[in-house]
Give the backbone structure.
Amino acid sequence: MHQGNFDLSLEQITKIEGHAALTLKVKNGTVEKCTFEVPEYKRFYTQAVRGKHITAIPQMVARICGTCSNAHLLCSIRAVEDAMGIKVSKQTYLLRRILNNGLIIRDHALHLYVFVLPDLYGRESLLAFDEAIEEEHELVHDAFAIKEVGNLLAKWSGGRSVHAPFPTIGGFLTLPKNGDQEKLILKLELIRKKVEKIIKIFEKCEFEIKEDILFSALQDNNYDFFGKTIITADNACVPARNYADHLEHVVKPYSQASAYMYEGKTFMVGALSRMNLSKAGLHAHTKHGAESALKLFPSQNIFHNNLAQAIEILHCLDDSIDILSKLEIKDEKPVPYTLKAGMGTGVIEAPRGTLYHRYQIDEKGVVIHGDIIVPTGQNQICIEKSLWDFAQKNLHLEKKQLAHEMEKLIRAYDPCMSCSSHFLKLKIEQL
Amino acid sequence: MTKLRVGWFTFTCCEDSTILFTELLNTHWADWKDKIEFVNARILKENNKIENIDVSFVEGSISSEEQVDKLKEIRKNSKTIIAIGACACTAMPSGWRNTFDEETKEEIKFLIDRYSHLEKVEPLKTYIKVDDSVQGCPMNEEKFLELIGNSIK
């Protein structure tokens, strides 16, 4: 038990996407400093896009992040299409939804099973689950089965689950083959019970840390992750293209990531925000399958971000079955366009929250200026606030347990350091 | 049977190959679980060590002295090192700043100085001997499977 000053250092937080660090300073039983540091070695993509032609930009910026590469790809394509005034076909819209659904299923399942589930079962890793215990054995296999179906959706629609090569400005370079839809539907139906099981596990999970913060997400009536309006929990509505005007960039000298406030308020983006603000738009089968879990929303419990992700897996599964059962691929080329100067904005809901790309383009199609705002940057201040509040209330815990609980809290936010930066170490120092 | 002691490390990159590798577990873990022990794989587990490693797969390029030191430590403690993906093999696309004109370099100089970046982003081979590589952005899956398959024969 720590009554006064203490010193604790944890070099590397595991089971998150990328590397990151935290410094906590405690003096006379009071937290004096709590900084969430994202000291990645910057790759300067916003400078690198300048002078490049728009046709090269989407695949280039997909390389910002391996895990949500297809979200960056789609967001960037939409920004360029916005600048060029391109309206895509219904088929392109549906195929992009399948690609994004595949990403959400795979990425959320990676987070829930590989990063979070070991905390619930007291294991070091999903791979350390005891195969002799039926429940644990099943969960390991559920994890692989669900992630694989997410990959299959992305491969079918986009050609690959990471850095998909088929999507392009105006449509798709290569179209998927007819005849595979039924097989994909069967595979989706086979994992449905497994997804319902993981929803139940996170519904029963008693981890709780409530935060009085603003939740914000792109609104879509059918929960398609491609809406046109940003909504917030205090009922503000902002056209997506103007989103950046409402964000205040906060410089954290100890962190290489950009942090943001929303109109001066601490806010959160991601699955919890989407579920809090848009659960009415979920697929009817998902509303039925996750009925009791959905009653927990709206929620201020940060750990319900995990539950919200589990429900979103089910929604993406049901939505994909719906689309695939009606989608007959017809041959079509990407929409042709004429280069023109202008500004284009793309906003989508990536797995971890609202993703924003904006490019200023000259008459030759060359990018003059680019802005990219990623979800983890938007959540950075909120993560820091939660960690500070949690530490202050739990200074009585043993060092090892305090560090472990703070890691669990960081994982609940599902930060992505590849997007925002690259290196997090937890250091708790004595003053 | 002695398990192959494997390390998976990342430096400056987008970790696309790390994601591809975790997704390969979906279909290959059943075969690998009795043949591979992960000594260090931050994305998968706690308690990661850099000691007595048979094969280290290293993704990403090198941007700082701190990374150079860690890379050399991995080299010292690994029998084989395999560079994974374009950034580890060529320093691109992580190393866009190597290609910037003088004006853009001046613009980012305060960040390079503040966070002690090296002057240039470099591939692994600049600092250590690399035994083999899997090119690609992300890495070529077949080549990776071939290499790991040969190691656990």
About this structure: Residues 16-32 of chain B form the longest helix (17 residues). The first strand of chain B starts at residue 4 and ends at 10.
